[in-house]
Amino acid sequence: VGWVTPEEVITCGDDHKLIFWNALSNEAIKTIDLPQTLFPTDLHCFPKSVGTGRQKQVISELFVVSATDGNFYIFNRSGNIEKAVEAHRGAVLTVRWSTEGSALASGGEDGQLKIWSKSGMLRSTVSAHPISVYALCWSPNSDHIVYTIESRLEIKPLSPNAKPIQWKGHDGVILRVAWNQNNNLIVSGAEDCRYKVWDSLGRLLYASASHDYPITSLAWSPDGSLFAVGSFNTLKLCDKTGWSYSLEKPQTQSILNLCWSTDSTQVAGVSSSGTTLFSYVVDRVIDWKAFEVIASGRKLIKVKNVTTTTEEEYDFRENIIKLSMEFGHLLVITTTQCHVYKVTNFNTPHTLDLKDPNITLLLQSDRNFLLVDALNVNLYSYEGRLLIALKWIGLRIDSLNKSTLALSGDSVAARDSGDFKVIHFIDTQTGKEISNDNKPFKHKLEINIISMNYCETPNDRICAFADKNTDLYLTLVRASNLVMLRTVKCTSMVASIIWSHDSNILAAIQENGKLQIWLYPQTAFVDKQLLSVAAFEKDSVDMVNKNPQLISFWNNRINVRRCDGSLVAVPINPFANFLHTFVSQKRWNEALRLCRYLKDNPDAQPIWAAFAGMALHGRQLEMAEVAYAEIDKLDKVFYIQKIQKLTNKDARNAEIALIAGNVREAENILLVAGYVLRAIMLNIDLYYWEKALDLAMKYNKNNYIDIVLYYRQQFLERFDKSEDSQKFMKFFAERTVTENFDISNFEQVLKDQYSEKIENTSKGSYGKK
Predict the structure, then answer these.
(1) Residue 740 burial (CB count, 10 A)
(2) Where are the WD repeats (predicted)?
(3) Is 24 part of any domain?
């Protein structure tokens, strides 16, 4: 079975008939007789975008049918055979188009896996085994193929020197395997009556309980959020993490094949009794604060307000494809329109016409929302106005999902479709990539999850991401050239991350079930030592299970989905949100009183640490001094007191920037103000030796070079190291520091590094202050 268009389904069977069905009326619209010798075993449609503008849609111009005679047949859309290809000895059991449609893969009873061109020319025989290949599937990038070898699965790379990954997947023969193009997850079903979910490295994420009969069919929804499982008189709808939404018992015998529509709302299937099934996803439920929305029918939704106990029904002319409710707005996507409701007024929605009915992803932020269809990534305002069509290098629509695309009011973060180590940051105002060096952000490992905070200013925008090793990192989206650390590691073993909708708080759930909450992640770039202090951990018995997922985070409640599908609400300290509110409104005294009020609260220490980071970031030294004293950071207290004694404005600003972690900003202030010696000693204290030498050479006054060389030699002698810098080797060869230089002559200057100042004038004159 396969979808030729969004409204047309094609099926074939042992009755030698090719039948075209109308998915809206569930009636056969055309029947074509096949040769009497052709007994089909598999069918796969090749999606191809045709048309332009509003008429653009996904239509399969070709589809391929495998048969028991050892051939596969390429059909055109009219149902005529364009080419018959002799492929295997014995039956061809499975055949699949590659993701982009440039190649075919086939597996047969002879145990061989072969790659073919689009026209049916043999390219290579990838593998050969004495066991039949019952199922195969291409990877999202079409550079790997997963296929079955009895009870084992093997991921075969198509590059010549790469090693395959093989593992035992089931206790019986594996009959079906599917690899989703969107979320990169693999699901398999076998004669042991179980289905299992794997990641792309073969690690088990979920194993179902044993069913009554073998699993005979599997299919992922195109958006990667659901998959369907078929067995004898059984049809299950499952979440991507494995747990089951619903179970139906159609009296159809074994369901042999399943296929989803392009909008992920319908499933077509065929069974061993010759029955064709059409199933629809209904009763989808979303909630936001006091509201609950239920798609109770294909064209009907119910909106409940649990605080006022009111319930309203809204009927639409077309089928409902997607729902989303966040930031005070409900979005309802139908076949041709998007309806935008404000939760304060459901009577007058904004309606916009869709250019493409196949909406694969819907994201919301506090100011706008993002629609991803089969061809475009469009940003809209909540008034229904198209703001910008986003494009970036490496964009591939079918790889975008909630884990690889993030939206905030001013920025979009997207993982590169070709290089999973790269994140593109795009400005929503201009549509241009945000980059200091004209290069996208690149991590050292492949990135699996990305998420951005919704609050704070554009310059404080933070992207949190988890990489292949499940390590969590924070990076500044708009990192200034004056910032030393753009990326900071936060923690390890992360399974899911989420930002609060109301304040700048980050939550992450680890693989051991522990929930970590960072009250002010910005401290990673202000005072890294505060990051672990300004956080608390929850170890809930309800969450200790495999692969929990964070669903939503607003106010002081986090919703966690367990692996069995149950929802757990986890409360956090409400005073953290109050603190963010006071600070965002510059009500520093109230924020300080709040922290003092929590003196005996068990979460007082993390809240004080968060307040210290906020005060330091806001350049509120008095508040920062009190907060640091409360968490026993006496070194920071003494340093702040030293800064407060400085009377010179430039010196004070430089030291504030330094304690706030902005080393390059502090250096820049010092150089502009003429305090070159302090800038040089700052780099020496931080072991930025070559930078210190460059400054000494540029402002060669009063033996600055000799001062740098003296401290460099002391460093080498102390750590028993030999010189390895070419710059320093050159200077050490020209002069002997210990014989010609006496540091005691500079004791007074070095003691008060702000006592010497080089005036910045056009003539380059120097003077002392």
Answers:
(1) 9
(2) 85-117, 167-199
(3) yes
